[in-house]
Amino acid sequence: MSSCCDPTPKKEKTSTSCCASEPKPTTSSCCAPKPTDHQHQDACCPPEKKGSIDWMMYSSIAFVSITYALYLINNQVTELNLPNWLNTMADTSFEMFNAMWWGLLLGIVLVGWLNRIPREVIISVLGKGHTKQGIVRATLAGVMLDLCNHGILMVAMKLYERGASLGQVMAFLIASPWNSFTLTLILIGLVGLKLTLSFIVFSMVIAWVSGIIFDKLEMKGIVPTNPNKTDLPDDYHLKSDVKRLFKEADHSAKAYITMLKDGLVGSKMVMRWIFFGVVLVAFLRAFVPMDIFETWFGATSVGLLLTLLAATIIEVCSEGSTPIAADLVTRANAPGNAFTFLMAGASTDYTEIMAIKDTMKSWKIALFLPLVTVPQILFIGWLLNNFA
201 near 179, Cβ under 8 Å? Predict the structure, then answer.
């Protein structure tokens, strides 16, 4: 596998371009010459505005870095006597960054790696788009991939750019955030095996149903279709293509460094909202009391709706949502509220909504995410509160 941005001309191949669904005789690079007006500009290589600065991303990173440093100085060097609100912000940045850094790093690696995998391979693994089997495969992939919601978001957006159907991307995204192997084991220890398994099954059901709905919306033209769609040739064989990729792979240190750089560039759009989310959480925790979870979120219709509201407002990473969900089970005796909190974090999270809008260039798709999923989440939450 050659560098995604290797300027060296390549011989024509069937699927060497990390961005093109058609062979390009001049280059296999994702950074091919700018297409003419009649050509499609792939989302893998969006046009860059020279001289522009992403103030939101860099100011959010600066905020997290400064407050993180304040925490380290205050707790490991010398006590600074910080005001309570600033101390809470420092604690939040320290807690959230420590919980999500590995997911961000692994997400960057996977995004860079996916850039080098031909679309045909990805589509073959996920199955044909706009089919029930394709939705099932995407759902299972989301459940089995051990990544936090921040890493999953990066990978899901890259899958869209690589040609997966809208339904597959949404099924993958909805099934994934808290269903990592590590968090599943933690949740089993906190709330028990039976309840954890029921959470997993219901989350897969929601992901599968939502994926089918999004595919129907896309096919009927209610939401924009994926411009990166790729149809597999009739004579395509996954096994032989994977063997060829391994045989041609470049395992040099330079190739891996280039892959990481590409992954970092490809993840910027998502990272800006992730770090901005940390900033918002810091302000919410500093100025909005958090102990209301223990008193207001019982197993009632009002408690369920308040849980949904809290999950919508409060940006919590998957590592942070798991202990809060367990607290809703053990202290509030509301398993349905716990499930709602876990799932609504993915369905109503402004980080995901804005990343979807930026990647897919559609407010309609972004807003359909909560419209499609929230009614299902509330219904299953009500069932769990009353019959679990």
Answer: no
